[in-house]
Amino acid sequence: FYDYSLVDPDNRRPVDFERRIGGLAEGADWPDLSVQWPDGRIKFALTRRLLEIRNNYADLFRDGRYDPVPVDGEDAEHVVAFTRSLGKRRVLVAAGRRFAARTAGGHQWPAGWRGAIATPFPSARDLIGDRSINNGMELGQLFDVLPVAVVATEE
User: Please, how many CA atoms are within 13 Å of residue 38, restricted to the half-sphere of its CB?
Assistant: First the structure.
C-alpha cells in the first residue's frame, strides 16, 4: 500500500482501489502485520480499526471529558496517554513516542516496554487487539505487538 512518490506528477497515478477493497476484507493479524510492516498493510489495518473504534464510541470521543493520564516507569517519557470519560464509560488511549532509537534503525517495532499507565482500570478490553486486560496497565502488555493501545473499561 505504501507509495513513496513524493512530488507531481508521480502522485497523480491511479489509485489501486481493488487492492484496497481487498484489504478491507482481510482480518487483522497484528503480530503478522507488525513483522511485515514495510508492505503498508499495518497502516491500512490500524487506520481502519481506529476509525471503527471512533465510530463505535462516537459519543464518548465527541462529548466525553478528556483527562491526561500519567505514565510511570523507565519508559514513561516515551508514552503519551489520556482517557475519555462519559458517565461510567471510559476509554484509555496510549501511544509510544520518540522511540526511533529502539527500532534497530527502523527495521523492527520497539519491544520490551517498561512501566505502567497510572489509571485504575480493574478490568478492561483492548479494542485494537480484541483481548481482555486484567493485570493492570503494564506497558509491556499493552504494547507487546504495537506501540499503540485503545482500551475500554469492562463494566
Answer: 3
